[in-house]
């Protein structure tokens, strides 16, 4: 069933304002157009809602019974449209973002603070997961946006590179390499390394890049998350090779972050969205802010 909203709106305006002239001015249409809307509605219903004479307009019995319901329809629709208009103009609403955990250490909170300042009424829901889980969340509609490590292209995903994230050596003082401004991969061969799971996108990327250069490292320990590796380094268990964005110098007393060179290896962090879907105004605002914010570890 197709609801003739224009006709219902015309009927309510005529009934409330008491005439066609006032109702036409209220709706910013001609009296002829207003009459046609009402006639179309009455023809569809097969009922007269108004009795019209040259001097006055009166509701029929059916019209009096229908008016409260018609008024509610118009009010609800008007309120709904105004809410959508407000969402569009002020980017109001909620955003769900799927994100790799390493982004939540330092870089993402700064963006979220800026977003909260410009959109204080919006709610941001964060889904933590590895790069594969982030891609799945965006593809399945669980999140409008995703932040992941660059991987195999998917035909339904649009990927925008946000920044390049170099791998760095994290150690605890005292350490033989702590005074170095940079270290080489060859220096890592004798280090007691805490490795991140081989299932993570960063580890896959790192192993691939090193294998191309004939470099192979063996870690004594393996963990699932970057934060766990940092905790073990802080506890003196060993050292770690991690994305630079996961650790900021000064975060933990006694820990050092040293650049890795020969060769420098960088992972690319990308912003994901579905190609076929438009973003909500709130998500579009977050998307634009992410792209405009310089994100560097």
From TrEMBL:
Keywords: DNA-binding, Transcription, Transcription regulation. Residues 3-60 form the HTH lysR-type domain. It comes from the Bacteria. The keyword DNA-binding applies. Transmembrane segments: none annotated. InterPro entries: HTH-type_LysR_regulators (IPR050950), LysR_HTH_N (IPR000847), LysR_subst-bd (IPR005119), WH-like_DNA-bd_sf (IPR036388), WH_DNA-bd_sf (IPR036390). The keyword DNA-binding applies. PROSITE patterns: HTH_LYSR. SUPFAM superfamilies: Periplasmic binding protein-like II (SSF53850), Winged helix' DNA-binding domain (SSF46785). Belongs to the LysR transcriptional regulatory family. This is LysR family transcriptional regulator. It comes from Azohydromonas lata. The lineage of its organism: Bacteria, Pseudomonadati, Pseudomonadota, Betaproteobacteria, Burkholderiales.
């Amino acid at each position: 069933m197709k609801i003739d909203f224009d006709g219902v709106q015309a009927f309510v305006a005529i009934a409330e304002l008491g005439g066609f002239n006032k109702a036409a001015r209220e709706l910013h249409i001609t009296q002829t157009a207003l009459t046609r809307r009402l006639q179309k509605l009455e023809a569809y219903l097969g009922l007269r809602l108004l009795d019209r004479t040259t001097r006055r307009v009166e509701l029929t019995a059916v019209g009096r019974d229908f008016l409260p319901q018609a008024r509610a329809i118009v009010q609800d629709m008007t309120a709904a449209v105004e809410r959508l208009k407000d969402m569009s103009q002020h980017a109001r609403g909620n955003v769900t973002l799927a994100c790799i955990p390493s982004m939540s250490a330092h870089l993402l909170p700064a963006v979220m603070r800026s977003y909260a300042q410009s959109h204080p009424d919006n709610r941001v829901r964060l889904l933590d997961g590895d790069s594969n889980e982030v891609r799945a969340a965006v593809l399945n509609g669980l999140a409008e946006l995703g932040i992941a490590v660059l991987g195999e292209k998917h035909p339904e995903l649009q990927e925008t590179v946000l920044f390049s994230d170099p791998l760095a050596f994290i150690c605890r003082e005292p350490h033989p390499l702590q005074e170095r401004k940079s270290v080489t991969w060859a220096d890592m061969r004798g280090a007691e390394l805490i490795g991140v799971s081989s299932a993570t996108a960063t580890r896959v990327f790192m192993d691939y890049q090193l294998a191309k250069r004939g470099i192979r490292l063996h870690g004594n320990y393996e963990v699932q998350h970057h934060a766990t590796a940092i905790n073990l380094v802080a506890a003196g268990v060993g050292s770690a090779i991690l994305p630079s964005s996961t650790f900021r110098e000064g975060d933990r007393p006694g820990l050092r972050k040293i650049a890795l060179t020969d060769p420098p290896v960088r992972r690319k962090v990308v912003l994901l969205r579905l190609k076929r879907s438009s973003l909500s105004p709130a998500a579009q605002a977050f998307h634009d802010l992410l792209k405009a914010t310089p994100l560097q570890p």
